[in-house]
Amino acid sequence: MENDFGELKQDKSDTKEKVYYGLHQHGILVFNVATEDEIRELKREIPNVHLQQVTQASSDNSDLQDNNFLYKPYFLEKDLEKGKVINFPSLKNKNEAPFLPRQFVESIPFSSDKISEILNHFSINRNTKDAQTIKETIKFCEATARKGQKQNCATSLESMIDFSVFMLGTNNVQAIATEVQGENQMLQKYTIKEVEQVADGVNMVCHKLNYAYAVHFCHGGGRTKTFVVTMIGVDGTKVKAVSICHKDTSLWNPKGLPFVVLHVKPGTTPICHFLQDDQIAFLPFEEAY
Description:
This protein is of the alpha+beta class. Helix content is 23%, strand content 25%.
């Protein structure tokens, strides 16, 4: 067992980073006020070398241009329409952190008061970006859930499944995730080819966090509709994207990013978003269409 875990640590021994990083996720912090950095990011999501091409793509979709957003991470259910063309970056997250068996992760501390022990375990210098990321991820996981919310950071596949059974109240659970055929991270046009509703009811979504191994922030999505949306990019990238539409947004922050980009108010209309390919949606199997 020790040899297996040692091999994992050796996988990145020839690099300066010992933490796995993904791309920015807009979907987790819907209860927070949108920051200027978040808003600015949506206006310059890609390198300047691609700006002319994306600007032209935006000009073909006038509903995506208000406030000069290059794309909108949130959208309305009516936007999930066959034949519609949208601007969107690749949903391939690039966070390749592997799951470790439960017996491994349970032997490794995961708490703010054990930071020194954790950094020593992974041979991470406390003055590095990786050390700061370790601290931030654990702090995020230790935050108290908001009233009426249930959440958990799953540090293994086994603990993720256990929490999904607890959240959904059934052992008959299915898991779905976005599939991306292509490596392109550039923002580009995608044409929606097919929209399939796969569930209508409660679900649980797990978002992969930056850490030394796979850690997922899992939470209840509340009353939702879940869709699988087949799209194809102008460069040929094929995507089967999981889209979650939240029916009740009344508890979301009225100054949060969804309402900044959509110009709607909390609780007035369902709000949808795609899941990146390292995020997992859990659904009661009997709700599958």
